[in-house]
Amino acid sequence: MKLLIIGGSGFLGGELLRQATAAGFATAATYATQPPDTVGDVVWHPLDVRDSGQVAGVMAEVAPSVVVNTSSGGADWAVTAEGAVRVAMAAAGRGCRLVHVSSDAVFSGDHGRYDETRLPDPVTPYGAAKAAAETGVRLLAPHAVVARTSLIIGDGHPLSVHERHVHDLVAGTREGVLFTDVVRCPVHVADLAAALLELAASEEEEGERGGEGAMWHIAGPDALTRHELGVLVARRDGLDASRLPAGRRADTSLRGALDVRLDSRVTRRRLRTRLRGAREFLGERRG
What we know:
The chain is built from ten helices and 15 strands. It is α/β, with parallel strands linked by helices.
């Protein structure tokens, strides 16, 4: 398998690179501004996914058998929505297998639990961009894997936004609160990367997986509020969790979904990779 990781310089992309090179896969990766320290024998390529010519050029130069797109520009439509469509178009044109990483942000939270069959109903610009990306990917590359995930947690990595947020709040270097009414299903970055690589390497035909086989929910089984998650991170890292400010999003003017629980039971039955819950992977302080 010759693998191209779009967004290899990010938190998830970096873990994918580490696992892919450890498994002996020929791996190339892209970065938006500057490449990070080299991981193994990775070949780096600069890429602006807003430029169709650059996307096509990188695809032609690497000639991958599988493309994993982990890139995201937040609410920037040109990157998150249109960029994903450009990647899908180039992958489909070259006959590459595509694994596209999406988000639970495509859901409103009005229904609580969301399985793989639920249609997107976003309520934020970021969620709308990710939902549009899913639609474009599935139209252009019908056999692509679309993998929705939730809050991605690691072991204190500096690129882990959610963990850094907790440390900053405890230290008093950032204002804000952790919401007690916003529920998600966190996943460990290593588990997510392993599951994506499993799907990337899979030789199964989509038709053998059933009608909804192209959609996967890769999230942990534990549904936690943002504050509960913050407390677990703080305790693991030896921080004073009592210093974490709490509040309710419903009491603010901030837009966003409240209770989004990715139901990944069907996906977990199909994968060999075990997806741990946050209470398990955050249960012990790092030594």
